[in-house]
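ok here's TRAP transporter small permease protein, seq below lol
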Amino acid sequence: MPSRRPRKFQPESWLATLALAAICVISLGNVIVRYATDASFAFTEEFSVFCLVLLTFGGAAAAARHNQHIRIELIEHRLPPTLCKLIYVLQWAAGVTVLGVMVWYGSTFAWQEYQWESLSPGLGLPNWIYVIWLPLLSLAILIRLTQNLVDRLRGKSGPEVIHES
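and the structure came out like this:
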C-alpha cells in the first residue's frame, strides 16, 4: 500500500473548510426552522455571506500554493524553460499587483470602518469584524503565490491538476 506524504499545516485550507461547514449548518438550520415555524433566522444571510468570503479567499490561497489557479497553460508548455521562467515571474507580478491593491485598499477600508464604528445592517455587529478578513486573506494569497513562484523557479512542482477537456 503506498504511503501518503503528510501535508503541511495550511491554515487557509482549514479556514475554508470550517467556513463551508458553517454555511451548511447555518443553511440547514434555517431551512428546518423555516419549515417548522414559517419564520427564518435573521442572522443567517449575514453570516452566510461572511463565511462565503472566507471560503473564497481561503480556497484561493490554497489554490495559489499548489499552482491550481485557472490560467492559460498553452503558452507555458510551448516555451523553452528560460522564457517559461519569465512567464512565471510575469504571472506573479500581475498577481502581486492585484493583491497589493486589495491589501492596501482593504486595510484602509477596514480601518475606516473601525474608526467610524459602523455597524452591520442585519445584526448590528461592528463592520470591521467582517471587513478585516479581506486584507488578511489577500496577504495570505500573496504569500502563497510567492511560495509557488519560488518552487516553480527552482523546478519543483507538485502533482499537476488533471484537466478533462
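fwiw DSSP finds six helices and no strands in the chain. kinda neat tbh
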